[in-house]
UniProtKB/TrEMBL annotation:
GO cellular component annotations of the record: plasma membrane; proton-transporting ATP synthase complex
Membrane topology, from the record: Multi-pass membrane protein
GO biological process: proton motive force-driven plasma membrane ATP synthesis
Name of the featured protein: ATP synthase subunit a
Keyword Transport: yes
Record field: transmembrane: 46-64, 101-127, 148-167, 215-234, 240-265
MF terms in GO: hydrolase activity; proton-transporting ATP synthase activity, rotational mechanism
Keywords assigned: ATP synthesis, Cell membrane, CF(0), Hydrogen ion transport, Hydrolase, Ion transport, Membrane, Transmembrane, Transmembrane helix, Transport
């Protein structure tokens, strides 16, 4: 199947943009290229890779934590300690207050998003080819952060925390006053203030999810275009420079997602 698609760049590119989907209404696999009319369609590949990478991250950190030493650390422990120091310094500089959830949440967000982004550096045909030959999956996308459902789900979790801490710290009445008395503290502008602040509030999770999705989707698309339009013996000429540059994008997007999470929660935790 892959050889047939390589001979036709258009089919090859469209094939790599399809998810392995299951229609829960009919309990059947959605064929590549078909659009289901039902709402309950799951991108199984994005969910599987997200869960696997999350479990991988937790198992590695748990293993290192169980075997941690106070003497000279090994390479893995030293690397994780550097990550801890990096996250801790950012949380202390950006979050005003005391909250035991912020640092673990920031660490989880940074490492998890980084690992999902890192999947973009795996050769584009490697895992889809294996899944097709061994499990007969019709399609497979391996970069969870290039799926808007995953990125918006993560940003929705951050949005729930924003609402929770806003109401917990300021109270329901205080949170409502914040939405209606800013930026113009006058009864005439209550409705205008509410609409303005509501748009600002809702834009936080939307921009947070779309920013990560857009950057990772475009990066994945470039790898697909290189593989679909160039002969195999010349692909490294563009693949290698783009992969090296993409390492910066992968790290930067994980950092931005973490920083905005800290900033949004810090703003929600400030009492007025």
């Amino acid at each position: 199947m892959f050889l047939e698609k390589i001979s036709n760049p258009q089919k090859y590119i469209s094939h790599h943009l399809n998810h392995f989907q299951i229609d829960l209404c009919n309990f059947k696999i959605v064929a590549p290229g078909n659009v289901s009319s039902h709402f309950w369609v799951l991108n199984i590949d994005s969910m599987i890779f997200s869960l696997v990478l999350g479990c991988f991250f937790l198992s590695i950190f748990y293993t290192v934590a169980k075997k941690i030493t106070t003497g000279i650390p090994n390479g893995l422990q030293a690397c994780i300690e550097l990550i801890f120091d990096f996250i801790s310094s950012n949380v202390k500089s950006m979050y005003q207050g005391q909250n035991p959830l912020i640092a673990p949440l920031s660490l989880t967000v940074f490492i998890w998003v980084f690992l999902m982004n890192l999947m973009d550096l795996i050769p584009i045909d490697f895992l889809p080819f294996i899944s097709e030959k061994l499990f007969h999956f019709p399609a497979m996308r391996i970069v969870p952060s290039a799926d808007i459902n995953i990125t918006l789900s993560m940003s929705l979790g951050v949005f729930v925390l924003i609402l929770f801490y806003s109401i917990k710290i300021k109270g329901l009445f205080g949170f409502f006053k914040e939405l209606t008395l800013q930026p113009f503290n006058h009864p005439v502008f209550f409705i205008f203030n509410f609409l303005l602040e509501l748009v600002s509030l809702l834009s936080k999770p939307i921009s947070l999810g779309l920013r990560l999705f857009g950057n990772m989707y475009s990066g994945e698309m470039i790898f697909i275009l290189i593989a679909g339009l160039l002969p195999w013996w010349s692909q490294f000429v563009l693949n290698v420079p783009w992969a090296i540059f993409h390492i910066l994008i992968i790290s930067l997007q994980a950092f931005i997602f973490m920083v905005l999470t800290i900033v949004y929660l810090s703003m929600a935790s400030q009492s007025h």
